[in-house]
Write a structure and sequence with these properties.
Blueprint: E1 4-8, H1 10-23, E2 29-33, E3 39-41, E4 44-46, H2 48-57, H3 75-82, H4 95-107, H5 112-122, E5 128-131, E6 138-143, E7 148-150, H6 151-157, E8 163-169, H7 178-184, E9 187-190, H8 195-203, H9 208-212, E10 216-220, E11 223-224, E12 227-228, H10 233-241, H11 247-255, E13 258-259, E14 261-265, E15 269-273, E16 284-288, H12 295-316
Parallel strand pairs: 1-2, 1-9, 2-5, 9-10, 10-15, 15-16
Antiparallel strand pairs: 3-4, 6-7, 6-8, 11-12, 13-14
Helix pairs in contact: 1-2, 1-12, 4-5
Length: 317
């Protein structure tokens, strides 16, 4: 059985992960999920990327909004607003249940990885879902005009003001199972996620880059035709990467990360939108239709990426 590890962050990462899970046999996929943008809000511990993965894999998520649960209501937040509390980060009524259970378990001393496994099992998810760490590693955004902001303050509260640097506070060890999942994987896939704030936090965890250096790693470009599929990435690349937003800029970012030998970058392959191949230097390139409009698109793209990874593995052998 082919075993795959998927590094996941953001909505695009969760949707691609869903396709991979559906394209492979049960138990073949381990998701390693970004927790750099976790936050405490209204006394509750919220894990936006873990929750997006869980809701997406369980087919509970709101596909149109891209986050939270389908069919959600907002009575609790309406009450918070009436009482003068903070409402800049919305938590739906049903979504609150997830955060209440998680927060109570954390306060009892349970690790996030064990809590995540229990929550995923409760909603019928067969894939293994791991947080990148059980400890605190926070994505911090240095901005041009507003100083340093925690990730959610930057993205949600302040609507992504101009960035000068992305950094990570905390150096916890990987969660149990993370390095083992990479070691056991035939391939490692990076979803079409913002590399700076969704994938790099995972890569910052001790031992992850070294483990990936031994593997065939294939990424999907989150840039299509010079624009981000979702989020502020296109505006971040010229500042942080020193070039215009493109699939080539994504390849350059990952090529700067040591990987398969001292003179090679992290990626063996990069999957890009047809027409975006020009300017990609370093990894092998597969051109496809990478915008996932529905579940069929997710599965179709996952199969194409898996086939590409297999061919790269055969070439390496």
């Amino acid at each position: 059985m082919t075993r795959v590890a998927v590094l996941s962050g953001g909505v695009g990462g969760a949707r691609f992960l869903d396709g991979v899970v559906r394209a492979l046999a049960p138990g073949a996929v381990t998701a390693i999920v970004n927790t750099g943008d976790d936050l405490e809000h209204l006394g509750l511990y919220v894990c936006p990327d873990l929750d997006t993965v869980m809701y997406t894999l369980a087919d509970l998520g709101d596909a149109e909004r891209g986050w939270g649960l389908r069919g959600e209501s907002w009575h609790a937040m309406d009450a918070v607003r009436t009482l003068g509390g903070p409402t800049w980060f919305n938590l739906g009524d049903r979504d609150l249940g997830t955060h209440l259970v998680r927060t109570a378990a954390l306060r009892r001393g349970e690790p996030l990885s064990a809590i995540t496994a229990r929550l995923c099992a409760a909603v019928g998810i067969s894939a293994r879902v791991l947080p990148m760490t059980d400890g605190a590693c926070r994505t911090m955004i240095d901005t041009r005009d507003q100083g340093t902001l925690a990730f959610q303050d930057w993205l949600v509260r302040e609507r992504a003001p101009a960035v000068t640097r992305v950094r990570f506070e905390g150096a916890p060890p990987p969660a149990p199972g993370v390095l083992g999942a990479i070691a056991e994987a035939d391939f490692v896939l990076l979803g079409p996620s913002n590399p700076y704030v969704s994938v790099d936090p995972i890569l910052s965890i001790a031992g992850v880059r070294k483990a990936l250096a031994e593997k065939i790693v294939v990424a999907l470009s989150p840039i299509v035709g010079g624009r981000a599929v979702k989020g502020p990435l296109a505006e971040m690349i010229p500042i942080l990467g020193g070039r215009e937003a493109s699939a080539g800029a994504i390849a350059a970012h990952y090529s700067a990360i040591p990987g398969r030998g001292a003179d090679r970058g992290l990626l063996a392959g990069l999957v890009v939108e047809r027409g975006d191949e020009a300017g990609v230097v370093g990894p092998a390139v597969l051109a496809s239709e990478i915008v996932m409009r529905d579940r069929d698109d997710r599965v179709r793209l996952a199969r194409e990426v898996l086939g590409f990874a297999e061919r790269l593995g055969e070439g390496r052998a």
